[in-house]
Amino acid sequence: MKFSTKSIHTGEEPDFREGASGDVVAALHLSTTFARSAVDRPTGGYEYSRSLNPTRKALEQKLAALEKACYGLAFASGLAAETAVLLALLKTGDHVIVTDDLYGGTQRLFRKVFESRYGIRFSFVDTSQPEKVKAAITDKTRLMWVESPTNPLLKLTDIAEMSAIARPKGIILLVDNTFMSPYFQNPLTLGADMVLHSTSKYINGHSDSIGGAVMLNDDALFEQVQFMQNAAGGILSPFDSYLVLRGIKTLGMRMEKHAGNAGKIAEFLEKHPKVKKVIYPGLTSHPQYALAQKQMNGFGGMMAVELHGNLTGAEGFVQNLQLFALAESLGGVESLIELPALMTHASVPAEDRNKLGISDTLIRISVGVENADDLIGDIENALKTV
Ligand code: P1T
To answer: Does 374 qualify as catalytic in the annotation?
Structure first.
């Protein structure tokens, strides 16, 4: 089955058995516990809803199918998924190589929780430079954590090349695929061991559910992360699982529209005299345009923009838009805009932000699926006020 067929049908096959109702969408199972007919006979394998829940299971099957994975696990947030992976795989003294430019909340979790309190070491490395990655490996390196494209600078890492470095050394390669969604990029097919998503973004797509997911193929790794999902308990609720199952059905259509709109907006902005720079993987001016074409099936809906002028100008622009909400998050049907240095990446030390190029005036746009001409008209008007 192709992507959109799987996104609609996998995990939600109608049940025609005696007594079942043939629902065409997965039922919402709110029960916290499941009765059994005998002590040693849990009904259908279900015991307690934290461990296994039918609605969450339907979503986990669909998520696995969309990332071309054997297994999927759903969590209460992207950060809960990250926490479960780190708890499952690492112990004090272990070392992790991490892409230097990544979501601020992920950096906060690594630095302020796992490094400062639990003695796990993180090296923030420009993973677009394989030589830098090789130089950072130590005999304690257990995990490589890559975001591609990165949040917010849209920098790419060659996933196949990372896998070629990590695999011979027994280092696990995880890719946070939130920005591309499984529709535009499948890191497992490029050699990654695990894929992570904040389902709060494109996968759910309607800005009404916080969630996270991990998809993978290896049986032993799956057992470790599944154990932690149950042991630490950061599961996605049945209701959120239901919402994500509902949202995910249109993921392919939405991603096409996000990318189509983003391409038009990026081209418009790049030609505008008040714009200094547009970073979008679908522009030939992106320094890794060739890699984007090679490892992604599309360019997504995220971009970063620098205007000429100062912070007052950037603030004026984002505040004068009518259709783009000034808000954190991304990947929903509605367009959002924000200033990473002051919002999503405020927890990243200023010195690190400056080194990476996340200036105070950098603007991040999550292009929604509204009409492209309306969005461009809104941008054009707001730019007049700058
Ligand atoms: O917000 P949560 O569902 O916990 O997901 C965390 C997360 C993980 N990975 C990436 C690449 C992310 O972008 C995020 C969350 N990001 C935002 C809220 C944001 O505005 O960038």
So the answer is: no
